[in-house]
Structures are given as structure tokens and as C-alpha cells.
Design brief:
The chain is 32% helix and 29% strand. It has one domain (5-139). It is of the alpha+beta class. It has helices at residues 5-16, 24-38, 122-139; strands spanning 43-49, 53-59, 71-75, 83-89, 101-107, 110-117.
């Protein structure tokens, strides 16, 4: 992993400031953050837009500025009921269980998959971790 102390501190401050410590969305985001952070050669961007979303964007070593292998968003339109939207470019992953929603042209003009996580389903987080690993493999 390539460290970016300021970005990691910003992400950790966001996680630590999350008021509902027991929420499934918080735990899912934390699990995904830890997972992508541990992948070799990954750098992270984090874009906070309070009231809209908080977006974790991991990049592999061969990707340029603004290119990401995943977009892990905490949807913040209701801070008391946050949920996750995790998206990938279509050419970077498979979706063998058909859990994702195909988004034609929806990721910067490219086809993608988005997975919405609103409940407490550890299986979906594990599935998304596998998709992150799959996308990372394609860009590392």
C-alpha cells in the first residue's frame, strides 16, 4: 500500500465522527476501506460532500490521476440513515451472482456496475471485497 497520511487521517476522522457506531453502513464502509487500503500499490482519494455523499476512490499503481478501480460512496442525504453505493467500471469486474445494477454510460461515460447496500448483509460486503480485488488485479 502506498500511504497518503492526510487522506487516511481524513477518512479515519470521517469514520470516527460517524454518530451511529453500530450501523451496518458504517461497518460495511469500514470493512471495504480496510480491504482496499491493504491491497498492494493502492492510493486513496476521499471526497466529502456533506449532505450528499462521502466518496472513497482507490486507484491502482498503473492508473493515472482521476482513474479509479472502485468508487465506494456513503450516501449522506439522510445522515441518520446512510447507505452505501459501490460502483465499478464494467470492464474491470464480473458479477457472477447478478447482484449489481448495470449502469450503461453512467461512470464518466463508461458502462459500470453499482451495488447498493442498505442493510446488514455481511455476505454483500464480502462479495464487494471480492469485486474490489478483481478490479485491483486488472489495474495492478
Amino acid at each position: 500500500m502506498i500511504e497518503s497520511t492526510a487522506v487516511n487521517q481524513e477518512i479515519e476522522a470521517f469514520i470516527n465522527g460517524w454518530e451511529d457506531d453500530d450501523s451496518a453502513a458504517r461497518q460495511g464502509f469500514l470493512d471495504l476501506y480496510r480491504h482496499v487500503r491493504a491491497l498492494a500499490g493502492v492510493t486513496l482519494d476521499f471526497v466529502g460532500r456533506p449532505g450528499v455523499s462521502y466518496s472513497l476512490r482507490p486507484r491502482g499503481r498503473r492508473q493515472g490521476e482521476g482513474e479509479f478501480f472502485a468508487i465506494i460512496d456513503v450516501i449522506d442525504d439522510d445522515p441518520q440513515a446512510r447507505w452505501l453505493s459501490v460502483c465499478f467500471y464494467g470492464h474491470m469486474i464480473s458479477d457472477p451472482e447478478g447482484r449489481g445494477e448495470v449502469i450503461p454510460g453512467g461512470l464518466a461515460g463508461a458502462d459500470g456496475y453499482c451495488f447498493d447496500v442498505a442493510g446488514d448483509d455481511a455476505g454483500v460486503i464480502e462479495y464487494l471485497q471480492e469485486r474490489c480485488r478483481e478490479a485491483w488485479t486488472r489495474v495492478s
